[in-house]
Amino acid sequence: MAEQVTVRSYAKGVALAPRKVAIVASLVRDRTVDDAVVILDHTPRRSALAVKKAIEAAKNNALVNHDLDSKGLKITKISVTAGTRMKRFKPASRGRALPIEKKSSNILVEISGNAKAKKPAAKAKTSVKEEAK
After folding, report:
1. What are phi and psi of 127, to 5 degrees?
2. Distance CA 8, CA 78 (A)
3. pTM exceeds 0.85 for this model
4. In whole angstroms, what is the distance from residue 111 CA to residue 117 CA?
5. What is the pLDDT of residues 4-59, one digit of tens each?
6. Positive or negative, the Cα torsion across 52, 57, 58, 64?
7. Rounded to an integer, what distance in angstroms lies between the CA atom of residue 14 and that of residue 132?
8. Which domains, ranges and CATH numbers included, belong to the chain?
């Protein structure tokens, strides 16, 4: 039986408010990766693209780095936390300055799946010249 492997991916400093990203992330929580991508393709929110990129990055990590089977990939955890805030000021009337915070988000995606069954290594064929020696 193949072992269950968990793979993580982070998207840090996404220039969107965490509250808005969390709404989209909750749409795809506990779904398969393929279903999540289809849902995010049809979600009319700007944060859907950022969540989709984070999920696809985790999927590619699972396929390339950890050699997992692409069919059984499932999102086990997706969380959105507040990133750094850029503090700016906007000029106002009578010489005042009003503060502005430009918020950012950090997206964590964990995907679990089964490792591919490893095939037994084939024995190398020996050439006729090596057998003669």
Report:
1. -80, 165
2. 10
3. no
4. 18
5. 889 999 999 999 999 999 999 999 999 999 999 999 999 999 999 999 999 999 99
6. positive
7. 65
8. 4-113 (3.90.470.10)
